[in-house]
Amino acid sequence: MITKVAKIENKLGIHARPASLFVKTAGQFESDIRIEKDGVEVNGKSIMSVMMLAAEKGSEITITAEGVDEKEAIDSLIKLVEERKFDEE
Amino acid sequence: MKVRRDKLTVKRLLEEKRQELKLQSISGLEGVDNVIRTNYLSCPGLLLSGFKKHFNANAIQILGVQEVEFLYQMDEKRLKKAIKLLLSYKIPCIIVSGDLKIPDFMIQLCKERKVPLFSSKIKRHDLVHQILDYIEMKTAPYIYVHATLVDVYGVGILFTGKSGIGKSETALDLVARGHRLVADDLIKITKRSPGILMGHGKEPVDFFHSHLEIRGIGVVDLSRIFGVRATRLHKRIEVEVNLIQWGEKTDYERTGLEEKTKTILGVKVPFKIIPLVPGKNISVLSEIVALEHLLKLYAYDTPRIFNTRLLEIMKRKGEKFAQLDRDTE
């Protein structure tokens, strides 16, 4: 199990489009993906859950991956959130 | 997919519309095999006055009160010249509207040139509308596709997908739930302007439209089983639902923000891909597709509205939205 904290860097936060990107990326891996924010933990492969976190710019989410490809999963997801900023501003 | 167009002959127009258009043959029926090659109608007033440019000889020529009176005020020489000019072209047929008296020379020349000449009691204005509608319908481009067409809450859903994926079963289930089958297996899609696709089954539609084959059972007749409400003869196609096997594709639409479309005969149609898994109720999903389509028509776009509100919530982080702590129920 790997857990990492990521900061939301894109201006609009995790709205529908970024959430869709997140679950699509998460869905490429076998591992279970969970996201925690403000004491709520959700399934990282469920788009409604991810959107319901309402993670705005500047907030922090804790991503946990658990499974055979947890390392690759967490790297891709952290990269998507922090480096690629969901390919948004 | 091969785009086809039917040839429309004067004979076919006559067979199908003679009564409705109140057509009376004046010059005999020679030349009824002439093909109507355009859905334009020509009122050859300018040609009769001698102006030949842009004259459309492929079109049905409609003579109204203006053209006929124009002819009658000419002296015989000019009248003959004008009629000869009109009949020097290979025109499909002439229709004189409003029960007007036709110059004898025109009748004579039409016989000679084998151009069918008709008289109708209907006024030109109404005649033009009726003929235009008919020609447009009969000469519209069409294709045949392997699909199933069902009217779900008034929305025409075209189900596509591989043979055996469950299109007919989906249709059957939808009909059992109160929706109406248009046709199964072979759908003829006709493009009606502007940008409207109509779908129906194979002719004779009133025979084929209610039959479908269910694997393991055989051919069933839905209008026999469920009555007249179970089927309809044609329906505008508004959405395509593509049924696929789960796992064939992995990047399914998740938010609904991206509106995929499919182009059929140059018309864009919303396109949904639904993966099949055991236990998934395709009928309910199809009903949702139809109802969401209707909501969009009424300017309620759920994914967009959801996202706008989500963005607002993120902006006003920390504000209290609902008084849940006071609600103890």
Description:
The complex is a heterodimer of chains A (89) and B (329). Chain A has helices at 16-27, 47-52, 70-83; strands spanning 2-7, 32-37, 40-43, 60-66. With 89 residues, chain A is of the alpha+beta class. Chain A has a 4-stranded antiparallel β-sheet with strand order 1-4-2-3, covered by helices on one side. In chain A, a hairpin with a 2-residue loop joins strand 2 and strand 3. Chain B folds into 2 domains: 10-138, 3-Layer(aba) Sandwich (Udp-n-acetylmuramoylalanyl-d-glutamate--2,6- Diaminopimelate Ligase, Chain: A, domain 1); 142-300, P-loop containing nucleotide triphosphate hydrolases (Rossmann fold, 3-Layer(aba) Sandwich). Chain B has helices spanning 10-21, 45-48, 65-72, 76-87, 104-113, 124-138, 167-176, 205-208, 222-226, 282-297, 302-315; strands at 8-9, 23-25, 35-36, 41-42, 60-63, 94-96, 117-120, 142-152, 155-160, 180-192, 196-200, 211-214, 218-221, 234-236, 239-245, 261-264, 267-276. The A-B interface holds A 12-17, 19-20, 23-24, 27-28, 47, 51, 54-57, 59 and B 250-251, 254-255, 257, 303, 306-307, 310-311, 313-315, 317.
Quickly list its features.
heterodimer, A: 89 residues, four-stranded antiparallel β-sheet, 3 helices, 4 strands, globular, B: 329 residues, alpha/beta, Udp-n-acetylmuramoylalanyl-d-glutamate--2,6- Diaminopimelate Ligase, Chain: A, domain 1, Rossmann fold, eight-stranded mixed β-sheet, 11 helices, elongated
